[in-house]
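Hi support team,

I'm filing this because I wasn't sure whether my run with cobalt (II) ion finished correctly. The job status page said complete, but I'd like someone to confirm that the output block is well-formed before I use it downstream. Pasting the exact inputs I used:
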Amino acid sequence: MRFKKIFQNNEKWVSEKLSIDPDYFKKLSCGQNPEFLYIGCSDSRVTAEEMMGVNPGEVFVHRNIANIVSSTDSNLNAVVQFAVQHLKIKHIIVCGHYECGGVKSSMNPGDLGQLNSWLQSIRDVYRLHQNTLDKITNQREKFDKLVELNVVEQCINIAKIDHVQRQWYKTGFPTIHGWVFNIRTGKIIDLELNMDVVFADIRSIYDLKPHKKRTKPFGN
Ligand code: CO
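And here is everything the job wrote out:
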């Protein structure tokens, strides 16, 4: 696509929006009230809003290579804090996708330069589930499984975040969802994680307020 085409597209988009509602941008500029925080991969093929069929203002979005939730990532932490504390979002979605380049690179040992440290957490996911993964002989199935396991692990990482836990104790929200975008069919797969069960297993390690009772379950 030509660079200039983007501005032509933009003009067209603006006129389309205004033809439906002359106050569209006036309303948009007044503020946002999204219910969802979406954390997905930077992959150009996985566009959060388009595949979810949502409008501007409906989803708060954070994207990075291979949808990683890292406790030392100040960008991610700021996004999560803002989303739960100020926007009071109800759902956090971690969405991976099949054929993810970041996950694929992590499947085999090798020096990836700057990406080494970023992708190390996916290698850690592999190590955690090595018994399961090494049993899968079909390479594509193994790749798909690692994509799924990475999503689960990143959902667990969301549950470890202090801002998320504080909000849980206060309101019972947000609910955490693990998704995989099947890039071969276009469908979103809900891994249907029950975070209540998942977190119960690790609560003795990661619960930041072990003596407080939650108002509602973490999960579905
Ligand atoms: Co990806």
